[in-house]
Amino acid sequence: MVRYAAAALATNPEKTSRARGEYLRTHFKNMREVAAALTGLKLTKAYAYLSNVAEHKQVIPFRRFNGGVGRASQAKQFKATQGRWPEKSVKFITNLLKNAESNADAKNLELEDLIIKNIVVQQAPKTRRRTYRAHGRINPYQGHPCHVEIILAVSEEEVERSKDKDVAISSLAGLNRRQIARRRIEAARA
């Protein structure tokens, strides 16, 4: 069995499914931004989002590796200004999601309840080529492939928050730690 980087997140192996791709010939930086956009989405919603990105109806917001990335008005819905439509990365991650979905189906998990728990993108060794420049010089011409791991999990049913705790939290809202500690000490003295 291969070791997964995000194996600690799969606390209940019966309720999770995984898929991984290694040495994928798509840009690491683009894949990282696609993964960040998908993490936490329901699987069905992720498929719809990726198909919209392929058709340029929605954008992948670029937040970390965004130097030289143009602005896109579609990025406003994600509270970002920059974005792209990385088609090759979308294609690779769609195939991995389908693989993880079929792994979940083999485990008899409910496909409608699956959420993308985590996606890990790591740099793979660079592929080296060369380009020939003026005056007899040679420069490197490297590719930046990546390794991708996907963990899908069955979404947990949400537990309702207790009412009495809400009252305590709302009375302390807007206070810093020192003010909260002072109130706690005063309440203990009384």
TrEMBL record:
Family matches, as Pfam families: Ribosomal_L22
Database matches in Gene3D superfamilies: Ribosomal protein L22/L17
Any one of the GO CC terms: preribosome
Domain of life of the organism encoding this protein: Eukaryota
GO BP terms, alphabetized: cytoplasmic translation
This protein's UniProt keywords: Ribonucleoprotein, Ribosomal protein
Gene Ontology MF annotations: structural constituent of ribosome
InterPro entries per the UniProt record, alphabetical: Ribosomal_uL22, Ribosomal_uL22_CS, Ribosomal_uL22_euk/arc, Ribosomal_uL22_sf
Record flagged with keyword Ribosomal protein: yes
Keyword Transcription regulation tagged: no
Assembly notes: Component of the large ribosomal subunit (LSU). Mature yeast ribosomes consist of a small (40S) and a large (60S) subunit. The 40S small subunit contains 1 molecule of ribosomal RNA (18S rRNA) and at least 33 different proteins. The large 60S subunit contains 3 rRNA molecules (25S, 5.8S and 5S rRNA) and at least 46 different proteins. uL22 is associated with the polypeptide exit tunnel.
Matching PANTHER family: 60S RIBOSOMAL PROTEIN L17 (PTHR11593:SF10)
Family the UniProt entry places it in: Belongs to the universal ribosomal protein uL22 family.
Identification of the protein by name: 60S ribosomal protein L17/L23
